[in-house]
Amino acid sequence: MKNTAILLAAGKSLRMGTGFNKTLIEVDGRPLLWYSLRILEQCELIDEIVLVVQRDMVGYVDDYIVKGYGFKKVSRIVEGGSERQFSVFNGLSAVEYADVVVVHDGARPLITEQMIRDVIEVAYEVGATAVGVPLKDTVKVIGENNMVKYTPDRRSLWAIQTPQAFRFEILKDAHEKAIEEGYVATDDCALVEKIGKSVKIVEGDYKNIKVTTPEDLVILEALISI
After folding, report:
1. Where are the residues marked Transition state stabilizer as a site (predicted)?
2. DSSP per residue over 190-224, as a string?
3. What is the model's pLDDT at position 14?
4. What is the pLDDT of residues 154-194, one digit of tens each?
């Protein structure tokens, strides 16, 4: 059984306001991308890693991060697309063969080996899975002029994170169908749902934050120091 990780680091990072990809920001002396790579490298269930980065990052990431820190499982570094979905597809296209594919955002540095093991195990069982956490806040659906339309039951609402894991053929089929139909989603689970497949959610961790804004960096540094 072969498990391949696709690690995404090709976003525009506009909300971070740095002028360069946020996964290259140094946190505690190391680039943000290093944290996810380290855990994927250490996890015995991951056989290879495909890195997806911006075109102008390929050489830098290869020399400074992959070779510089001695990551041996990185088999390919490929160019990302204009949307997250297209970056995942580019990563998938670089995978010659895998039983399960694990997709993870490089901007979520506090991934754990247990999360990876959990999603891989469930992907083999049911085909598609993601980590997530129950929402703590009440959610309102709003309409024009920010007027509340209704309040959904919070008990059934979860915030979905990565890693997400899929049987390779399921994820590949979902992406190909999305391209055919011109459908764009914000995560891979939505693409899989679109082709009629079920997705099981595994409870993750509230500390598994996605670094999007400068405020998130402050939170991350505090979490790392715990």
Report:
1. 15, 22
2. HHHHHTT---EEEE--TT-----SHHHHHHHHHHH
3. 47
4. 999 999 999 999 999 999 999 999 999 999 999 999 999 99
132 Cβ contact list (under 8 Å, min separation 6) = 158, 159, 160, 161, 201, 202, 203, 204
CB neighbours of 142 closer than 8 A, spacing ≥ 6?
148, 149
Straight-line distance from the first to the last Cα atom of the chain, in angstroms, rounded to the nearest whole number:
36
Domains in the chain, CATH or no CATH each:
3-225 (3.90.550.10)
CA torsion sign for 158, 163, 167, 168 is: positive
- Under DSSP, is residue 18 helix (H, G, I), strand (E, B) or coil? coil
**Residue 157 main-chain phi, psi, to 5 deg:** -105, 130
Cβ atoms of residues 187 and 88 within 8 Å? no
Instruction: List pLDDT tens digits, range 58-87.
Output: 999 999 999 999 999 999 999 999 999 999
Q: State the residue for tokens 């390929």.
A: 58
78, two tokens? 């490929």
Residue reference for tokens 């754990």: 112
Residue 57 CB coordination number (10 Å): 23
Angle between the N-to-C axes of helices 113-126 and 32-42, in degrees from 0 to 180, rounded to the nearest 10: 60
Peptide bond before residue 163 is cis, with ω within 30 degrees of 0? yes
